[in-house]
Amino acid sequence: xxxxxxxxxxxxxxxxxxxxxxxxxxxxxxxxxxxxxxxxxxxxxxxxxxxxxxxxxxxxxxxxxxxxxxxxxxxxxxxxxxxxxxxxxxxxxxxxxxxxxxxxxxxxxxxxxxxxxxxxxxxxxxxxxxxxxxxxxxxxxxxxxxxxxxxxxxxxxxxxxxxxxxxxxxxxxxxxxxxxxxxxxxxxxxxxxxxxxxxxxxxxxxxxxxxxxxxxxxxxxxxxxxxxxxxxxxxxxxxxxxxxxxxxxxxxxxxxxxxxxxxxxxxxxxxxxxxxxxxxxxxxxxxxxxxxxxxxx
Length: 297
What we know:
Structural class: alpha/beta
Helix content: 25-40%
CATH topology of the largest domain: Nucleotidyltransferase, domain 5
Order of helices and strands: HEEEHEHHHHEHHHEHHE
Distance between the termini: 42 Å
């Protein structure tokens, strides 16, 4: 009788987890969530959520934390292999990293300067800044080589005051570059999410206090905030989560954000995310955010 080989690296253990935890013959849809850190860091989180429509139940079937380069295998290749191991029922991959560069970074037209630019994305941002500058001082100029419409839209229209990092900004640009490197070799459907926005609306739908929701990535109070969310899902019998994964979700914010990302992918599949507003540029990137009046599957 053959024995299953004991994995000697975290990477091998992760692949065994992905291949071993599955729904079997029960029909389900799978949603991957990826919370990406810098390429040389060891914080990236990866989650797989399965949804069983017949039973209206969510199952966190796999959770991998602290993905890092090891034994000659890059973290990027590990992510590829994990995605490929998910299976044929994969519906989408939701990532907390920009899937598009700011317009002026990828534009190849002769540039007249953004003041005279006729591209839809730049015109949208120009209107946005004119409107905001009429309400505030000092006057601010846009930087369409670091900014995108989607972050500006959500900062202005989200019900809670939020600040989203610019896709081409100093802190975000390396993450954006890494995401594009990972995505270019994959054919699966990707969506972009912002875990802080998804967590806020999902948490409110579970009846969690706003004061706790504001802390989910804080050093102090973050673990408690994440624990309340997990407990809320379980109390309402919305999801099944292994005990060992519950502990990781509470302790590791990147793993937790990967879970939130995967849940957001499920919400989009169930048509429970916001539509693009009227007049929003068709080719511009978009952050998927759950609806305010959220209905859990």
